[in-house]
Amino acid sequence: MTLVARNIVQLALALSVALTAGLALMIILAVGRRRRRDRHFKRLDTLRENLGPLVSAIVAGDMDYLRGLSALEQLRGYDRTHMLERLCLEQHPTPEQLPVLLKLCEDLGLVQQWQRNLMGQEQRELLRDSIRRPGGLVEHMSEFSFLLRAQSAENLRLIRHEASWPLLANALDDSHPDVRRVAARALGTLAVPESFPALVRRLHALVIEPQATISVRVLKTALVGFPLERAQDLVPSLNHAHPRIRFLATDTVREMVERRAALESDFALRLHLFPRKLAEIFLLRLPFDASADVRARAAPVIAYLPEQTPDSLGAAGLDVEPADVLTRLLDDPQWFVRLHAVRALGKPRYAALTPRITRRLSDPNWRVREAAARALVATGPSGIDSLIEHLVTTRDRYSQEQIIEELEQSNLIPSLLDRYGQGTGAREGRALETFVNLGKISSIERILQNGVNPDVRRKFWMDFRAHPDRRVHAWAKRVTGN
Questions:
Q1: Phi and psi (nearest 5°) for 211?
Q2: Are 377 and 387 in contact (CB under 8 A)?
Q3: Residue 49 has pLDDT above 70, yes or no
Q4: What span, in angstroms and rounded, lies between the C-alpha atoms of 418 and 456?
């Protein structure tokens, strides 16, 4: 037993020494790492102070380019590339200055370095001689260096290096999802025309034979980043036999159109943006597609097509109007197709269709009813009048509540009370009575108690003091100050 105890003591002492040594090593490494970080950031701050203004002057054109480039090339050190990268990419160039920054990054060798990083070549070159066994770190280096690859793709995007699009397209097959996402974003930002068909072909292949290396969403993100003029390249996809491909192509065009519309007031799809062949597909084929998803995504695009004129869709014109197609989709058997059609009609140009939109206020699906109320408000005064008229005539409580909610969210209650106070019609009074009967009184109470015209308060009391519900009578007396 004495021998066993002695061995246990010796083992405990050995473990204690090992743990102490390990802890000391960890402390030394942490201190050393902290000192290296301090030296790194101190050097970066010094370079920012000394060379930052120089880079800004070069990019702004306030310094001779060759002289400034020569000064930057004198920078030395193991971290030279990283420091130059930070100095250049921390600039905020205008679109006019961006070509200068791009040229500077090329002349300093940064672009070539980022391209090598994206291809994963540099890491393999560093380890090729030291690690040769099959399945070693060389084969798996791309997995460990994904941050470097992702940052390199982002850098190429920031300086708009269009010639790197083939490398970025290859990076869509990268083993790490972060690299794939950054590469897709870069391709959408660069929007090189030659890369669009390549992305479309890759999307087709992915739909037909799904792969684990990339998602459809990543590819679609890249396609949507292109300008709307490239939508014509999706014609074969819109006519494809595979319903999933038709859907993705239609949805891509939809997002392109809506992005462009967000930048322009009174946006319409004119001939230079939407060729006649593309308009024919959206007007004559996609609304009748066997896929309900395709029909739904086509509706927002159709809503931006102008009335058929030679200027808009070619000299021959077409025999169908966008409004006719959209009203057909309003009666689609699938609720989400009706939903997209209603949303698409929520524009002042479709004010004449308010009676058709109003019918959807009684739709079996609550989301369609909600969208119809919102669309009527968006069409303008005639749509708002139709909304209030439906509120006082329908007996569908769910529809009434959704209309009231939309009127409140659109801040239309003050104008409703103003018109009510002016005595321009009985409809406003009936609408307010519907509010009260349903217990939706918070917005009315807030307005009546906060500076409303005394005539409105007086008329409200005169109309509601004889209400059969004594609680309503007491409430009306309180909020009107009587």
A1: -125, 150
A2: yes
A3: yes
A4: 7
DSSP string of 158-195? HTT-GGGHHHHHHGGG-SSHHHHHHHHHHHHHH--TTH
DSSP state for residue 360 in the 8-state scheme = G
- d(CA 397, CA 438) in angstroms, rounded, equals 8
Measured distance CA(96)–CA(131) in Å, rounded = 47
Q: How many domains does the chain have?
A: 1
Percent of the residues in the chain that have a pLDDT greater than 70, as a whole number = 90
d(CA 402, CA 388): 12
User: What is the 8-class DSSP label of residue 322?
Assistant: H
Average pLDDT over residues 160-187: 89
Whether 441 contacts 475, CB under 8 Å: yes
Contact in structure between 301 and 254 (CB atoms under 8 Å): yes
Residue 439 lies in a domain: yes
Domain that holds residue 423: 411-482
Whether 154 is in a domain gets the answer no
Q: What is the DSSP string of 401-465?
A: HHHHHHHHHTT-HHHHHHHHHHT--HHHHHHHHHHHHTT--HHHHHHHTTT--HHHHHHHHHHHT
**Better pLDDT: 38 or 196:** 196
Q: Is the Cβ–Cβ distance between 456 and 477 less than 8 Å?
A: no
Q: Tell me, yes or no, if the pTM score tops 0.70.
A: yes
Instruction: Give 443-465 pLDDT, tens digit per residue.
Output: 887 877 776 677 777 787 787 77
Nearest in space to 80 (alpha carbons), one of 131, 40, 135, 33:
40
List the one residue out of 304, 227, 302 whose CA is nearest residue 267. 304
- Is 173 within a domain? no
**What's the CA gap between 457 and 449, in Å, rounded?**
9
CA gap 371, 402 in Å, rounded: 10
CB-facing half-sphere around the CA of 255: CA atoms within 13 A = 14
Is residue 416 domain-resident? yes
Average pLDDT across the chain, whole number: 84
Residue pair 434/391 in contact by the 8 Å Cβ criterion: yes
- pLDDT of 116 higher than 50: yes
